Amino acid sequence: MSIAVTYSEEDTQHVARELAQTMRAGEVLLLSGDLGAGKTTFVRGLAEGLGLAPDVVSSPTFALVHEYRGGRLALYHADLYRLDSSAAEDLGLEELGVRDGILVIEWPDRLAHELPGARTVTIDTVNEHTRRITVVGYSIR
Fold first, then answer.
1. Sign (positive or negative) of CA dihedral 105, 25, 72, 70
2. Taking the domains of the chain in order of start, what are their residue ranges?
3. How far, in whole angstroms, is CA 10 from its chain's centroid?
4. Integer Cα distance of 106 and 66 in angstroms
5. Kind plus residue range of the DSSP H or E element containing 131
6. Residues 51-103: pLDDT tens digits?
7. How far apart are CA 17 and CA 134, in angstroms?
8. Whole-model pTM?
9. May I ask the CATH class of domain 2-136?
10. Could you please report the per-residue DSSP string of 61-93?
């Protein structure tokens, strides 16, 4: 487990860029944090770390899953905030990213089942600008 404290959006993106350097195709990140904690900011950093343009990343709240290509790996970004666990089950998220990219799932508590082997990333809001980011490698959520 590793913990980083960040003091700006740029710091948060830096932590994510560093994590992206360690990721390989087929990996899954379960990304948790309150509304406004910086989950999408974190995904922008992941995108940049994978060689993708970070400014194209947006919250997929209404589209459910966004796919970004053109970097070292494809990035699949899912947001389950508006779903209950039965609806999340029907998305087939396990099939995304297994061959050519990584899958990041925001609000993983909506999943109906665990995803063995996923890394868990939690972003805690300390104050308006400060975040505590905890990354647990290869654990079951």
1. negative
2. 2-136
3. 16
4. 12
5. strand 131-136
6. 999 988 887 666 678 889 999 999 999 888 876 555 545 555 555 556 789 99
7. 15
8. 0.87
9. alpha beta
10. TTTSEEEE-SSSSEEEEEE-TT--HHHHHTT-G
